From TrEMBL:
Residues 2-38, 41-77 form the EGF-like domain. PANTHER family: CYTOCHROME C OXIDASE POLYPEPTIDE VIC-2, NEUROGENIC LOCUS NOTCH HOMOLOG PROTEIN 1-RELATED. CDD domains: EGF_CA. GO terms for molecular function: calcium ion binding; Notch binding. The gene is LOC106157928. It comes from Lingula anatina (Brachiopod). The keyword Ligase does not apply. Keywords: Disulfide bond, EGF-like domain, Glycoprotein, Repeat, Signal. The keyword Repeat applies. GO terms for biological process: Notch signaling pathway. This is Fibropellin-3. Disulfide bonds join 28-37, 67-76.
């Protein structure tokens, strides 16, 4: 008798259980990670600092830093000369 690992609904926080040859894996929604999607990814402006005068803006999936003139990069930490 083959019992699916997904029968116990192991995936948390909206994760989708996908059977594999060995057992199962959880496919996590955005902002969740971990074997069972149990960890919340802290990718929002409460936990991010954009240096050099950058402004953090939250997006649907994460965040982005809006950089002032003279800086670039994901965190506005790279000097930029036009």
């Amino acid at each position: 008798m083959n019992v699916s690992g997904c029968n116990s609904n192991p995936c948390q926080n909206g994760g989708l259980c996908q059977e594999t040859d060995e057992n199962y894996v959880c496919i996590c929604p955005p902002k969740q990670q971990g074997e069972y999607c149990e960890k919340h990814v802290l990718l929002n402006c409460d936990y991010v600092t954009c240096p050099n005068g950058g402004t953090c803006v939250e997006t649907a999936e994460s965040f982005k830093c809006v950089c002032p003139p003279g800086y670039t990069g994901p965190y506005c930490d790279m000097p930029h000369t036009p």
